[in-house]
Structure formats: C-alpha cells, structure tokens
Automatic annotation (TrEMBL):
GO MF annotation list: CoA-transferase activity
Organism of origin: Staphylothermus marinus
Protein name as catalogued: CoA transferase
Record carries keyword Transmembrane helix: yes
Membrane-spanning segments: 163-183, 189-212
Keywords recorded for this protein, A-Z: Membrane, Transferase, Transmembrane, Transmembrane helix
C-alpha cells in the first residue's frame, strides 16, 4: 500500500532519543527522512550494548532513514543543507542553546530559504526560563516531574523508570506539532516542544489530584489508591500476576472464581469504598489464597470467569508471547547484521501495520545518492569527500 506520508521530506538534525524517535515514526509512515550527522556521527552510535560493533540503542530508533554525514561548520557543507531545505517540508533539531545559530541552521536562516518549512525544536526546558541551562537528562526530568516519588512504596527511595519514557512522549508530541504545521495557515511555522513540560503534562491525572485536592497521591507500588483489588499477587512459584477487579461486578466474579462467595457477601468488602477502607484485610486474605497454586491455574479460572487478569512478565516472557511475536515484532535486513528484529508501530492504517523495512543507516551511507539528487556531479562529490566536507561509508 502507499503510505500516508510518501512525498514528504524531513531533515533530521536531532540526536539521542526524542528527536530520532519522532522522525522514525514519520519514516514508518512513508516520509523520506534524511538524518543529518556530523562526520563523527550521532553519539548514540557509540552507546552500548553492541552487536557486531553496532549500537542496539541506535538500531532501535533510526530505521527508515537516510544518513548524510556532513561538516556544518564548513560553508560548503551549509550550502548542501540549504539546497536540501529548498526541497524539504519539516526540520527537526534539538541543539543546545546557540549551536544552531553557529551552524547556520537556525529558524530565521532556514525560513529565509523556504518560508513554508515546518521547523520543530525539541528542548529540555523553555528558553529564558530558570531551567534553560540545566541539561535535560532522563533522570533529571524524571526527578523534577515527581514521577520518581509517585511510584514504588512509601518507605522506598526514589524509583527510576528504566527507560527514557519522557523522551518517547516528547517525540510523540513533536510528531503532532510537526504534522499540525503542514496544515497550518500560519507561516512561518516554528514549534518548540519541551521534555519537562511534556513530563508533567503526560502524568495527566496524578498532578491534577494534587492541584485540585491539595493532596499528594500515596505511593502504592503495584496497587491502586482507590480501587481494591487492583494489583499484583504472587503465586506458589513466586511468579506475579495481575488481578484488576475494577468495579463491584468484577469483584463478584472474582469471588466466584476463587470459590469464596463469602467474601462477596462480607459487609467489609461489599462495595469498592468498603474494600478500600479494609484494603489490608482483604489483600491479606487474597494473598494467602493465591500463594497456594501456580499462576497459570489462577489465570485460567480468572479468565473463564471474565475477571481482568494477566501475568506480570519478565522482558524475555514478553517476547515469547504469541500476540507480541505475531503483531508487534518484525524483521528487516541489515547489510552487516543480516536479519534484525524491530518493533512495529502500535496501530494499523487500512489493516496494515506501519513500519519501514529500510535498515538503520551506516554513517554517511546515503551521502553520495543525496548529493546526486541535489545535482552534484561525481567529480564535485569526490572533491567534497576528499576535503572532509562530507563523509561516505
């Protein structure tokens, strides 16, 4: 099928995670994404772990793109970029303050070349704010957002979510701002997306609980502050599974499933507010029941009785799950690695999963073809390579 963003050209000056994740989404949807890299490449190419010398981190967020390795400090390098800007629709960057101006790729300069350009800048914090100079590392944003002291238990130290979720959320927001720009009547269209603002915004109801009630949500670990039972339980083999009796109807079904109709009739547990008030008593009873048999037994009878439930997987178990293997994981060919697994986008368009089968590019892999598309002769390209204005594999 034709993909919805075919014919769209994106220049990606970004690095690390949020920007490259955003532009990978666009490449999956059919956009021609040109990854603009320095002659030494995106720093994530050097981040462990590696397979055959190639960073897995880099492989996870750069499929579908073409790589142009170029010296933007050189006038001839900038001239190549300006030719690309004339033929492009969207620019992404996440440079530190002042860098884009030094490199000649700031909004004013690029808009003077293409007034219809959509320019998206990803930053840690709003410029001229009290945090403007603070490096927006993932753990910094997680700490500032309140997330690290909202998860885990009350007597535990702060808990870091083990992947940069706010970079991912920011990348998604950046895609929305970019595509909105294509339909905007406002020209020029310049958008900034901030990691910290995205972090607080994406926590949604947790901040609003505090803002509207002046109460901090309790740290409940894997439980829910206002629904019981809605948490993880341990089985006879020390494996965990979820029981999500999200309303009174599901609680009644749970009691039927485990053969404890008396718990459904007990006045302490009849309604959800009753169960919240008597959480510790009910949870202890359920823990003593569930620890008697293995997880598979409980999941079988819970699902037969239509009680929302699921195993708590280790990561290796996730990728043995038939749904994940059949719907989310796909493979593409890499020139040095052979067949490599990737994760498809989490939705479908006209019954088709969206993903690009173009491998994550080697540094400068597409430099020559891009220069030829811009009208450079082979002798001009050779001269640019020899003088280290551009680099190819």
């Amino acid at each position: 099928m034709n993909k919805p963003l075919e014919g769209l050209r994106v220049l990606d000056f970004s690095h690390t995670l949020a920007g490259p994740f955003a532009t990978m989404i666009l490449s999956d949807l059919g956009a021609d994404v040109i990854k603009i890299e320095s002659l030494t490449g995106d720093e994530t190419r050097e981040w462990a772990p590696f397979i055959n010398g190639i960073s897995v981190y880099y492989l996870s967020i750069n499929r579908g793109k073409r790589s142009l390795a170029i010296d933007l400090k050189a006038e001839e390098g900038r001239e190549i970029i300006y030719r690309l800007v004339e033929k492009s629709h969207i620019v992404f960057e996440n440079y530190r303050p002042g860098v884009r101006e030094k490199l000649g790729v700031d909004p004013d300069k690029l808009f003077s070349i293409n007034k219809n350009l959509v320019y998206v800048s990803i930053k840690g914090f709003k410029p001229n704010s009290i945090y403007e100079e603070l490096p927006a590392y993932d753990i910094v944003i997680q700490g500032l957002s309140g997330l690290m002291l909202s998860t885990g238990f009350e007597d535990q130290p702060p808990i870091r979510i083990p992947f940069a979720l706010f970079d991912v959320f920011t990348g998604m927001m950046a895609v929305i701002y970019a595509l909105t720009g294509l339909y905007s009547s406002v020209k020029p269209y310049y958008a900034e997306v901030y990691l910290f603002d995205t972090a607080v915004f994406s926590m949604c109801y947790l901040p609003l609980i505090y803002l509207l009630t002046n109460r901090k949500p309790m740290r409940m670990g894997h439980a829910h502050p206002s629904i019981v039972p809605y948490q993880a339980f341990k089985d006879s083999d020390n494996k965990w599974f979820i029981v999500a009796a999200a309303n009174d109807r599901f609680y009644q079904k749970l009691c039927e499933a485990i053969g404890r109709r008396d718990l459904a009739e007990d006045s302490r547990f009849k309604t959800n507010p009753d169960r919240v008030r008597n959480r510790d008593i009910l949870v202890k009873i359920l823990e003593e029941i569930f620890v008697e048999k293995p997880r598979e037994y409980w999941l079988n009878i819970l699902r037969k009785n239509q009680v929302p439930s699921a195993p708590v997987y280790e990561l290796d178990e996730v990728f043995r799950d038939p749904y994940v293997l059949g719907e989310i994981v796909f493979e593409l060919k890499h020139p040095r690695l052979g067949s490599i697994k990737q994760l498809a986008q989490p939705g479908m368009i006209n019954n088709n999963r969206m993903y690009s089968t173009r491998h994550p590019p080697e540094l400068g892999e597409n430099t020559v073809e891009i220069l030829r598309e811009l009208g450079y002769s082979d002798s001009e390209i050779e001269s640019l390579i020899n003088r280290n204005i551009v680099k190819t594999v």
